[in-house]
Every structure is written in structure tokens, then in C-alpha cells.
Amino acid sequence: MSLADRRFLVIASCLMLSVASFAEEVKRPNFLFVLVDDQSPFDLKVYNSRSKLDSPVIDQLAAEGMVFDGAYHMGSWAGAVCTPSRHMIMSGRTVWHLPRRGSRKRGADAKPSFAPADLPENTMAAVFNRAGYDTMRTCKNGNSYAAANAKFQVSRTATKRGGTRETGSAWHADQVLDYLNDRQGDDPFLIYLGFSHPHDTRDGTEDLLAKYGAVNHKDRKTLPPENARQPELPVNYLPAHPFHHGHPGLRDEVSVSGVWERRDPQTIRNELGREFACDENIDRQIGRVLKRLDSLGELDNTYVIYTADHGMAIGRHGLQGKQNLYQHTWRVPLIVKGPGISSGSRATGNVYLLDVLSTLCDLAGIEPPVTNEGHSFEPVLEGERDAIREVLYGVYCGGTKPGIRCVKKGDWKLIKYDVMDGAVQKTQLFNLRENPHEFLSQHHAPVVNSLTGSVPGSHQLNLADDPKYSAKRKEMEALLLSEQRRLDDPYRLWDQPQN
Ligand SMILES: [Ca+2]
Question: Is the pTM above the cut of 0.85?
């Protein structure tokens, strides 16, 4: 049965609940929404064939479902990128239309908030509760949308970033398994399985740290030991970003235990080993939950959505954190498996995380809330379309203002930096088909090439100042401005009109 047929039958069955036999015949689908904290899609083999990470459960999800190559978070106005990202997931609102955002002015000049006061009533769990779903959530504490999270009928939260069963990712899976054990009745369920890893501190389990040659390094005075089992340096590794990223004192760039300000190969490879240890443990924990759903006879009627709140640098472009708009950090992994989705399928999508809410509603035959601004990507899951939009906008505005902006259309991507009170005003223009890793001229230094195994001179670089591409740059700059206006971005960059 196609997704469209299913959707029709789900709606029909909702309308005809009094006809018990028909309603039983078409059971409404369950949802398992898996959100990991801080993971670049390029950790995963399904996005990066060079990756050494073993993630058999995620590979299997991809083999049985659809992989999205163009999934993004819209950005952040805070150093804790998690916070707006998770607001967008829960509410389906765009980044400048979230609670308390929309104006840089305070007091009498302040614009009204773009978020309605009753928004919590129109968030994921509230909407699914009203539709008769059982809703349950486990996740880390904090950096999220508390008023929306409070709507889940069952909530078991704690921040678990340790290397044992009780202190690590197994704890989150245990909460879901306990919930499935205790659950009464036949209503469909929406389970939000949020992990606290691979966010730092990346204290993996002993066996997985050993597998990836990593140690939980805690001594600032020494480097972690070299180990051939560690992941290789990322292909776009740099020992330093070529200019200031714009957020002085940023925790992720200077305070992560085991990394601090260091970007040397030994430190970065060890940290990637720690990341992979946490990634593989998450994979195991998802496997436990899927096995239980299978034994309960629910797996075939469950949509499993795997994603992250945003990506992560860890040595790419000389950065360590999540406060940039390169592809490794702006993009997120997104894999969806469920009834009617073709096995082993792949699509561009051009989706934001804020599209998840309306998509889940669509798949469940529920009307999305009126406050939703996302677009359902059900037509992509259905195989009817490859993408749901052409243009993508991104912002990082948590440090010095106005911050970083990017826009993408087709193969072309523009990034602009207006930070450090005007001291850094930079433009980057990439053709991602020719230069998917966003190589800069610094990547062509012999020392970097010898470390990453890259071939000198074999890649296109930043084209922003190449006269051959001046028309393309102008076109992309105009597109960025129109997206800023459309989305109520309250800031303008140094070379933009102020309206
Ligand atoms: Ca995060």
C-alpha cells in the first residue's frame, strides 16, 4: 500500500471510528523519533564511505528506509544551538518566530514577539495527545523547549554522558523499554527517544573506547596517546580556522574537556575516537528498542525517524564546535523507515528539522497545528518528489552580531561572516558539486595535505572573489537578503541595505 493510500485509509478510519471492524483493520501508525545530540552526518557510513564508525542498526534503518542528503537545521541565535533547534522540532516554527525572538530591540522599540502565546498547546506532544496517541519522552535535561516537553504524558529525563550503563546512553533506552513494558491499552504511540551523547563530555564505554583507540583524556598539560585504531583526520581538517569564528570565549571552541584550544592531529583523532565510541553505543541502544518493538509486533507499523539536533565540526575547518554553517555542522543526518517507504531509497529532501512536526502529522492523518510553519516531506517519503523546497537559509547569531548567514540553492552555497564588530567581514561561495567539503586555500598547504591524504590542487576552492563568478555571487547575495526579509531576520550584514 502506498503512503497516499495509507494516509487516505488512516483519515477514513479516523472518520469512521464507530465502525469498529474497519478501525481495527487500519491501525494508526506509531512513531519512534530518535534525536541524538551533536552529530555530524559525516560520522555515519551512509553519508561518508571513509568513516570507520560501525553503526549496523543505523545502516539497517537506511537499507530498509530512506536517507535524506539535504536535511538541515535552520540555525541559532544562541551559543547553545540545541535550544532553538529543539524549539523548531517541537513547534514547526522558523528560527526567528520562536518564543522571545524576532527583535534585537528592547523596551519601547521592541517589536511584538512572532510566537503566539498558546504555542505550547500546538507542539508535538500536545497535538498527538489530542489525536488520541500515547506520548512518551526521554532526553537530556535543559537546552530545549520546556513548555513543549511538559506536554508528553510520560517524561523521564536526565543528562547521561557517562561510560556506564546507568550513566550513559543505555539509560535512555531503558526508559523506553520500561515504558513499553508498562504501557496499557491499544492506542498508537509517539515515543521521543533523545540521547545525551555524542555531545561532550564524550565518555564512551571502555570496550568502545578501546575499539576506536581513544582515551578519556583529562590532562591539559599532555596530549592523548597516538593510536592507529583512531579515526583518521577529516578530509577538510585544518589546524586553525583562517579567521575568527566570531564568538569569543565560546565554550565549545575552548572548554571541551580533552580538546580545549587544541586542534593538533593527536587531539582531534582521539576526540573523534571518543565521538565514535558514543555513536556506536547509541546505535546499540536503538537496536535494543527496535528489537523490543519487533517482539511486541509493533515494528512494522512504526515510523522510525533518526536525526540529530545539528551537526558538529571536531577538527573540520579548524573548528571544534557547532557554531558555524559549513555542511558538517549545518546539515543533520536524517533517515526514515516505516510503512510504505521504499527500502534503500535516497532523496535530497531540502528539509529543515522544523518540517518534522507537519510530516509526522501527515503520516498520522492529523491536521498540523495552525501555528506550524514547516512543510511536510511526506511527498518525498512517498517517492513523488525529490525535494520540498529549492532555497535553504541558515544563521548563526549567538556570538558577535550580526553573525554568520548562509543560503543554498542547487549546487551553490554562499556563507557570509560579519562578526567581531566589523573586524571580520568575509564571503565564501562554494559549488558543492565541485567542492562538497568546502575546501579553502588553507586546505592546500602541504602540511595539511600530508595529514589528510588530500591531493594538492585537485579541488575547487572558495569562489567569492573569483571574477568569473561575480554574477553568481550577486545572485546568491540577493537570495540571502530575500530570505532574511522573508523569515524576519532582524539583522542586516555590512554590505546589505538596512531594511
Ligand atoms: Ca545539540
Answer: yes
